[in-house]
Each structure stands twice: as C-alpha cells, then as structure tokens.
Specification:
The complex is a heterodimer of chains A (157) and B (717). Chain A is α+β, with helices and mostly antiparallel strands. Chain A is 37% helix and 15% strand. Chain A has five helices and five strands. In chain A, strand 1 and strand 2 form a beta hairpin. In chain A, helix 3 packs across helix 4 and helix 3 packs across helix 5. The relative contact order of chain A is 0.16. Chain B is an alpha+beta fold and 717 residues long. Chain B has three domains: 178 residues, Aldehyde Oxidoreductase, domain 4; 149 residues, 2-Layer Sandwich (Aldehyde Oxidoreductase, domain 4); 327 residues, Aldehyde Oxidoreductase, domain 4 (2-Layer Sandwich). Chain B contains 18 helices and 29 strands. In chain B, the strands form seven sheets. In chain B, strands 12-13-10-20-17-18-19 form a seven-stranded mixed sheet. In chain B, strands 1-2-3-4-5-6 form a six-stranded mixed sheet. In chain B, helix 3 packs across helix 4 and helix 14 packs parallel to helix 18. The radius of gyration of chain B is 27 Å and the shape is globular. Classes of the chains: A alpha+beta (157), B alpha+beta (717). At the A-B interface, helix 1, helix 2, helix 3, helix 4 and helix 5 of A face helix 5, helix 7 and helix 17 of B. Bound molecules: FE2/S2 (inorganic) cluster (2 copies). One FE2/S2 (inorganic) cluster (FES) sits at the interface of chains A and B.
Chain lengths: 157, 717
C-alpha cells in the first residue's frame, strides 16, 4: 500500500507494509539515517521527528498514519544547520557521542517554536523524554535558552 | 627511513607529500589483560609497528589518521591539538581519519581505560615536532641558510632575515627525503597555543545536522537486515527451531542458525524484527537457568564468610581488629570497631547507539563496518569466524554512539560476520534494546565486607576488606586487580591493611564498565570512610584530610572541592552535603554533593567537583567529560540494577533500566587544579565518586546509611 506524505517540504510516496514505523521507513527504505534508533518503544527520544510541527517518536508511528501529513527530520530542519537550535548547539558544542542529538534537537526546535522564552521547568518538561547517556543535559539546557534568544531575534527581524 | 628507537618512519605519501608513521603506545595493564582475556591464544607481537600516521599533502592539508575511535570523549579534537601544537600548523587544515586496521598495527588499537591523551601525550607531540624540524631543514636548504635562521608560523616556514615564506605543503615532498631527527625538541609549555585551549570540537557540525555516520548508519549496496534470537539464559544453546511462520512474514529472506542463536534476515530492520517475533526457538538452557538475584546474593554472602585470596597485606590488620573488643559501644574503652557489608548490583552499559555490525564476506576477504572501541579485537574475531587470514579482514571504524566499555567486546561483530557469511550477502545486524540489556557483558555485582578499628584518637588503626565479585580480566595469584581496585588501593594512610578476594562462579558475562572496579568499590570505601568519621565524631572532610597527608594531589582536590562547595557553611533549608574522593586512571577527583530527601525521594541539587588531571589539554572537553561521568554514575546510583530470575535478565528497555533524565540533572560545577604533571585520564575520573558523595549526603540528611545500590526510596522512609 502506497502512502504519500510531505517529507522535509517535498512530496514523498512509499510502498511498504502499513504497520512499518516511520523510523524504519526513513532509515531503511529511504536511506535517511539522521533519525536514530534507541529503544523502539517511545522511551528514549532518539527517533524524534516533527509531524505537523509537533515532536513525535517515529519508532512507534506507523507509516499508514502519515497520509497527507508533513514530516520534518533533522535533515530537513534547515538546509545548512542554521536553525536557531542548531546554531545554539554549535555555539555551545553540545554533542558528545552525538547519537541522541538529532532527537534532542528536533524536540528542542519544537519547544522554541512554541515558547518564546522557555524556563528551566519548561525545558525539563519538554526534554525529559530524550535520554542522553553521555550526560549532555547541562549543555542542552543552556543551549535551549540560547536558541530561544536566536529564535526571538530572528522573529523580530 | 626507520628510526628504531622512536618507532618513527618517514616516507613519501603515495599521493605526494610527507608521510610520518609512528607508534602511540597503550601502556595500561588493562590493555594487556584485555588482550589476554578477549581472544585466548592470540599472540601479542612485539615487532616494531606503527599505529598512527600523519600525512602532509601538497595542498597544505595535514591528515592525522587516528588509531583510536571517537565516542564522545573528544579524541578527534584533543589529539589534533597535541599534533598542531608541535607541528605549528594551521588548525583549519587538519583532517582526521580512522584508518583501517593494518597488519603492521600494534597489538591494541582502540579506546579504553581513559588513555587516549595519556598514551599519545609524548609520542604524538614528538611526531609533530619531528615533522616541523624536517620542514624547517628543507626550507633552510632551499634558501641556503642554517635551520636556526628560520622559524615557523601557522603552517609556513619563514626565513628570519628575508621574511620569505614557504608553506608546509610545498615543502612536504622534499622533506620526506631527509632522515627524521633522533630527538625532536619539544616546545616550552609557556609558549603553548593549542594545549590548554578549547577550540570548537571538530565533529560537532556533522552531529547537529544528522550527517555523522555511526556504525548503525552504514548502508552497503544489496545489504540485508538481521536480528538474532539468542538464548535468554547465558551459556544456553539452540535445541531446535521452527522458521515457517517467520519465513511467511513479508520481507523475510533467510532464517539461519549461527553459534549464538537463530538469525532472521530480511529486506528491512522492521521485517527482520517482525520475523523474529514469529520465530519459535527451543533452547537447551544449560546449568545457569537456576540463577536468580537472590541465589547469587546467597552465593556471594557464603563466600564472604570464608577467607579469600590475598590482594593486599600491610602489618597485621586482622590481629589488631581481633584485639579490639567486638562491642564497639564499650564505655570504658576509646577504641572502636566498625563493620559493614556493602552491595552493588550487576549493571548494563546501555550506550545510546544499540550494538550493531555491518559485514560482508566475499572470496576477496571480509569487510566489517562497526562502531568498535577496539579494532584489533574486531579484526581478530572476524578472521576467526571466517577462517580468513587477518590480512584479509578490513575493519572500517565508524563513529561510536556511546561505548562505556561495552564496545571493547566483539561478540556483536562475530555474530554479524557469521550471519553475513551464512547468507552470502552484506548484512547489517541490529541489536534491539532488550538484546542490549539482556545480553550485555555486565559490570559485575559485588558483595563486600569492610571492617576497621579506630584508636583512642579516633583515627583508624586497622582496615580490612573482603571483596566478592566475579573476575573478567584474569586472575593473578587468585586476584583480579580490576575487581579489587578501589578497595585494595584505598588512598588513606592506615598502619594495618588487609584485603582479600573471592571470584564467584556465576556464568554471567562481565566486562569493563566506565571506571571498572572503582565504579562500585569507591562507593563502598568512601561510604565506609564516612561511617568511620562519624564513629570517631569527626567532620568527614577533616577526617579525610588527616588521612591524606601523604597524598598531596588527592588532598589538593579534597580541599578545593570543600572550599568551592562551602563545606561547613550553612545551606538552604532541607539540603545536606556529602563528600567523596578517588584516585583512578592517573587523575584525582573530589566531589561534594548537595542533596535533599523528601518522603524517600532523593534530589541531587548541586555537585561541586574538583579534578587534578595533570596538564589540561582541552578545558571544555574536560568539563564535559566530568559532567558525563557524573551523569553515568548518578544514573546507576539512583536508578539502575540488572536483576535476574530463572537465569534471565529482567530488564528489557529504558522503562525498567532508566537513565538519569534532564529534570533530574544537578547543577555540576567543575574546578580544575592547575598542574604540569603528565596528563591523567578524564573519561572515567568522575564516575566513582558521585554515588558515595550522594549517599553520604543522604546520611547527613536522614541518619540512614546506604549500603546497597541503587538507592531505593524504601530505604529512606
Ligand atoms: S527509538 Fe523511538 S523513542 Fe527510543
Ligand atoms: S551525546 Fe551521546 S547519548 Fe547524547
């Protein structure tokens, strides 16, 4: 069964089992490996993408539910890593091993889109579903605040 | 031209330019132990070999082939800093590559024991200095002046009198024709411009764009996807299996038995996982199916009642302890005896990137793409599985999504290669999270008895420890040094010390886990030291100070952490402090944790951490590594245990093996002691101390002594 949805701004059709989670469609069918596998059960956030602007765990999202929706992955967040969250992440050199960071960035991007000036409590609430085994949490918290500032400056400009 | 003594060789690079081949040693005793324990019978060659290469190309790029791997510890940034410092090249022109394992590489290539900087410190700087001297000499010859009449600046040799400049790239090929200096001169630390600074990490750009390729991201033409059903009990084997339903799942191509279980191979990971769900396998579970956490605990406790193999003996601790009356509350004697039993669970590594291996076996040889911490082991095991000579195995090192010791083992590589060989196609084997938690090589659990006597002045007169914890790194005189480290080398001056050890036979696969024996033993000894301080009626920091007079570097970090944490000063209501220290991997670490406990719930608010790691190469990376080690240790201290029943591990995913989350993250402050000593390690420096610092703070808050990890709310109400 073919499903058609928007992927990073372009129309995408895939013909796979309707139950196949978006994570494996991205990684195995389309060869887009920026979205990561960590747990397969919506417990770690490594596979986070945005669907219609909200952060979603692609490992538990059957591809059949995507018809007509718009999916953004780390590859499509910006053409040149210029999204405010990516700029903040670069500025603070957040990643260690880096494996969780696609998911962290996609969650953080959805947060700063919604909240102009997120508090620490907002950040904890939004980001607690994203595990980082390397323990970059302190840097992530600082980087989300920085990203929110970049985002506000961009919005004002 | 080989210079045997320094293992430095110079040649012309095949694409032009200068190629410098040299040797970065792995000096740790762990390296030797690990080499022994991983593949029995693999000879360790002692022939002169090279394991690092620098290529200076005509276009001025300096390519450093790193014989390490990058797993978040900053290797691709901090090692080039050492090179750039002495070569005096332009930072922008540095490239890094992970080379394939070549036969001429040394016995161990990889990352473990927090050694990347430690073992590269001298040889890498010497290689950079040698190349620089050769480039200067080459330019001097062209200008017909003496080398001393030239200097270098950021990738150029400059003629002091004329100001003429020649780029390294333009000199490289001619430089490759002259012999390397026997003793290249290293810079005066006062003129360092890279060491001690924090350039932006070289791998950040790829990691924030989703472009970095980890092992799990490798895609080969015609590649199939595999999962493996393993026996849930360690040591069990496949008795029979029925593949009919699995083969009916769309996309499933093969179901094959290999040494370690039954593999389902399909055209996507999803199809392979669905196929595995439909597979029926009967296992012969073997003798370990009786293991449970309770039965293991009993086995350990029974052993702890008997004397074990001696790990350390100074004076006669047992006699001194025996002479102190058992009743430590005797009113008429100032002497006291304190005895406690401490326990720590088995732990899984749970790196964020699940284990995986891409393998392709052809008539021409075997290719393996993997995120591995030790490439040599990966190669040797692939050779063993395929029956190919080692020269026909090519290991392609990928970025590692977290190692923590787990990726020093090569079980997942053996599996991937065996499946690829069986189906005669390139295969990607993916471990799921339950595979990872239930088939790890675990941090061994431990049951440890500690006892000490205090003299009339309250200071320890004797100290004994009996460690029961299984060995994985080999026994010497009945003792595995990695199992007793932290107890046998506890850092305090006590006149009589005795430590012995038992190796319980459990059949559970175990291996290196971030900070190894210190990960549990420092919790035991530093909590026990706190018990002694309280028994003596002394302040825990004062008590340690008195016992560290002969250990100035550890005393230094203790004092620094206490000062920065405001030890002894009033705290916000409900908050309490605890302290702990450790000396491991060549570094010194002290932590003060600030904790509150409410209705059994522990909140760690702030951790002040002081570190002496010798010369600091990159302060920003150091601080990140320290934070990282604390998060790893705190996850385990507060939340994690691997438990067993009927021989099976009960944890299957992050819901039952939950790491620290961002809302539980304390504010971590890192203070680094300025030092000119040779660099120590950082990756494992801060993991051991967080559990005891927190447990000691909990005692200060509640009067309850934590002697078993993880810390359970039930123990606190
Ligand atoms: S892989 Fe989807 S949440 Fe972990
Ligand atoms: S950076 Fe390694 S898991 Fe987050």
């Amino acid at each position: 069964m073919a499903v058609t949805f928007k992927l990073n701004g372009k129309s995408q059709s895939v013909d796979v089992s309707p139950q196949m989670p978006l994570l494996w469609v991205l990684r195995d069918t389309l060869g887009m490996t920026g979205t990561k596998f960590g747990c397969g059960m919506a417990l770690c956030g490594a596979c986070t993408v945005q669907i219609n602007g909200s952060p979603v765990r692609s490992c538990v999202t059957p591809v059949s539910t995507l018809a007509g929706k718009s999916v953004t992955t780390i590859e499509g967040l910006s053409p040149d890593a210029s999204h405010p969250v990516q700029r903040a992440w670069a500025e603070l050199d957040v990643p260690q091993c880096g494996y969780c960071q696609s998911g962290q960035i996609m969650t953080a991007a959805a947060l700063v889109d919604k909240k102009v000036a997120p508090t620490d409590a907002d950040i904890d609430e939004a980001m607690r579903g994203n595990i980082c085994r390397c323990g970059t949490y302190q840097a992530i918290r600082a980087a989300v605040h920085t990203a929110a500032k970049y985002r506000a400056a961009k919005g004002a400009a | 031209m080989a210079n045997r003594r320094d293992f430095l060789k110079v040649s012309t690079a095949s694409a032009g330019g200068l190629l410098l081949s040299f040797w970065l040693p792995e000096s740790s005793p762990l390296a030797a132990q690990q080499a022994d324990s991983l593949i029995p019978g693999t000879p360790i060659s002692t022939a002169p070999r090279f394991n690092a290469f620098i290529r200076i190309a005509p276009d001025d790029t300096v390519t450093f082939q790193i014989h390490k791997a990058e797993m978040g510890q900053g290797t691709v940034t901090s090692l080039p800093q050492l090179l750039a410092e002495e070569l005096d090249c332009d930072w922008k022109n540095i490239r890094t590559e992970f080379p394939a394992v070549e036969p001429e590489y040394g016995p161990m290539m990889g990352v473990f024991g927090s050694q990347s900087i430690r073992t590269s410190w001298v040889p890498l700087r010497k290689a950079g200095a040698a190349a620089r001297e050769m480039l200067v000499e080459t330019a001097a010859k062209q200008w017909k002046v003496d080398a001393s009449a030239c200097h270098t600046d950021n990738g150029f040799v400059i003629n002091n009198s004329t100001g003429a400049r020649l780029s390294y790239g333009s000199l490289a090929e001619a430089a490759s024709k002259i012999p390397p200096p026997a003793e290249p001169k290293l810079k005066d630390p006062a003129s360092y411009r890279f060491i001690g600074t924090s350039p932006k990490k070289r791998d950040t750009a790829g990691k924030i764009a989703g472009k970095t390729i980890f092992g799990l991201d490798v895609i080969r033409p015609g590649m199939l996807y595999a999962t493996l059903q393993r026996c849930p009990v360690f040591g069990g084997t496949v008795a029979s299996f029925d593949a009919s339903k699995a083969k009916a799942v769309p996309g499933v191509k093969h179901v094959v038995q290999i040494s370690n279980g039954v593999a389902v191979v399909a055209d996507s990971t999803w199809a392979a996982l669905e196929g595995r769900k439909a597979l029926t396998v009967k296992f012969d579970e073997g003798p370990r199916a009786v293991n449970s956490t309770a039965s293991l605990r009993k086995m350990f406790a029974d052993l702890a009642a008997k004397p074990g193999a001696t790990a350390r003996k100074e004076g006669d601790a047992e006699a001194v302890l025996a002479s102190v009356m058992k009743d430590s509350v005797m009113k008429d004697s100032a002497a006291k005896k304190v005895e406690s039993v401490y326990e720590a669970p088995y732990l899984s590594h749970a790196p964020m990137e699940p284990l995986n291996c891409v393998a392709e076996v052809t008539a021409d040889g075997c290719d393996v793409w993997a995120s591995t911490q030790i490439q040599q082991t990966a190669r040797d095991i692939a050779a063993m599985v395929t029956g190919l000579p080692k020269e026909k195995v090519r290991i392609h090192t990928q970025y590692i999504g977290g190692g923590f010791g787990r990726r020093g083992r090569a079980d997942f590589i053996a599996e991937g290669v065996e499946i690829a060989k069986a189906v005669n196609a390139p295969v990607k084997l993916t471990w799921t999270r339950d595979d990872d938690l239930q088939h790890d090589t675990y941090r061994p659990g431990s049951y440890t008895k500690l006892a000490a006597s205090l003299g009339p002045d309250g200071m320890p007169t004797a100290w004994t420890g009996r460690v029961v914890s299984q060995s994985f790194a080999g026994l010497r005189n009945g003792v595995d040094s990695t199992a007793v480290e932290g107890v046998a080398d506890m850092p305090y001056s006590v006149p009589n010390v005795y430590v012995d050890y038992h190796n319980p036979d459990t059949g559970i696969p175990c291996s290196f886990w971030r900070s190894v024996g210190y990960s549990q033993n420092t919790f035991f000894t530093e909590s026990f030291t706190d018990e002694l301080a309280h028994a003596a009626g002394k302040d825990p920091v004062e008590f340690r100070r008195a016992l560290l007079q002969k250990n100035p570097r550890l005393l230094g970090v203790l004092n620094l952490a206490a000062e920065k944490a405001g030890w002894g000063k009033p705290l916000a209501a409900g908050r309490h402090r605890g302290v702990a220290v450790v000396n491991n991997i060549g570094s010194y670490n002290a932590q003060v944790a600030e904790v509150s406990v409410e209705k059994g719930k522990v909140k760690v608010h702030r951790v002040v951490c002081a570190v002496d790691c010798g010369v600091l190469v990159n302060p920003a990376i150091a601080e990140q590594q320290i934070q990282s080690g604390i998060v790893y240790g705190l996850s385990a201290a507060l939340k994690q245990a691997i438990t067993m029943d009927h021989g099976r591990v009960l944890q299957a995913n992050f819901d039952t093996y939950d790491p620290l989350r961002i809302d539980e993250m304390p504010v971590v402050e890192v203070h680094i002691v300025k030092s000119t000593a040779a660099p120590g390690g950082l990756g494992e420096a801060s993991t051991p101390t967080i559990a005891p610092a927190v447990a000691n703070a909990i005692f200060a808050a509640t009067g309850k002594r934590i002697r078993t990890l993880p810390i359970r709310p039930a123990d606190l109400v």
